[in-house]
Amino acid sequence: MENARAIMSKIEDTQLENIRKAAELMADSIECGRWVHTFGCGHATIPIEEMYPRIGGFVGFHPMIELPLTFFTRITGEMGVHQFVFLERVEGYGIEIMKGYNFDTPDTMWLFSHSGINNVNIDVALEARRKGMKVVVFGSAAEAKGKQTRHSSGKTIFDLADIVVDSCAPIGDASVTLKNHQDKMGPISTMAFVTCVWMTVTTVAEILTERGVKLFIHPSHNVPGDSTAKQRLEEALAEYKQRIAGV
Question: DSSP of 24-91, one letter per residue?
Answer without folding.
Answer: HHHHHHHHTT--EEEEE-GGGGHHHHHHSSSTT-BTTEEEE--GGGT--TT-SSTT-HHHHHHHTT-T
